Amino acid sequence: MKIKMDDDVLKDNNIAANFNRTLFKQNQTLVINIMSAPGAGKTTLLEKTVKALAKEFKIAVIEGDLATERDADRLRALGVKTIQINTVGGCHLDAKMIAKTLPEFQLEEIDILFIENIGNLVCPSGYDLGQDYKAVILSVPEGNDKIPKYPLMFRRTDLTIINKTDLLPYVQFDLEEAQRDLRTINPDAAFLALSSQTAEGMEDWINWLKKAHTHAAFSQN
């Protein structure tokens, strides 16, 4: 038996992603797919982001985890509409999972929808969810080797965020080296360094989001 490898194994996912993208565009909702390894600080960054933008933008979140609703509860405590997806072992979210959650939202009232993907530097990079932008978070304690060791993730991102810069005095991490590595793999990606704990550099992230919302595809119609 022969298996043709030239068939698009992600065909069903991409159909669902295009459905999602059309729906987001129709409702003028900016969608950011946030990816990282476990513990890089995705949820903490979202908490601080919600607090910074709550007066200006209506925000919602799709929260991906293997199990529990702990991160979702943290965001709900801030008054943010948050839908939990538990994959029960799956290492990434896919577009069909996202599509199933969308009836839970009033998209026409949401300015920015964040999708917090499963903590993994491999699987999530290959799945289009219908998002406008992909953002990858790399935390300082993870070390400088992660960008060259996981090139697909960083090659497919629109923005790389170096988080936990407050730990730079205590661990070996070179911001300039990280930026050079990213430029080698993905010269078009934006690069930000910040600490979601101390808020150092958060203004750059907030400004990036505001520009992304202004320049989203639906704003050009």
TrEMBL record:
Residues 28-167 form the AAA+ ATPase domain. InterPro entries: AAA+_ATPase, CobW/HypB/UreG_nucleotide-bd, Hyd_mat_HypB, P-loop_NTPase. It comes from the Bacteria. GO terms for molecular function: GTP binding; GTPase activity; nickel cation binding; zinc ion binding. GO terms for biological process: protein maturation. Keywords: GTP-binding, Hydrolase, Metal-binding, Nickel, Nucleotide-binding, Zinc. Belongs to the SIMIBI class G3E GTPase family. HypB/HupM subfamily. This is Hydrogenase nickel incorporation protein HypB.
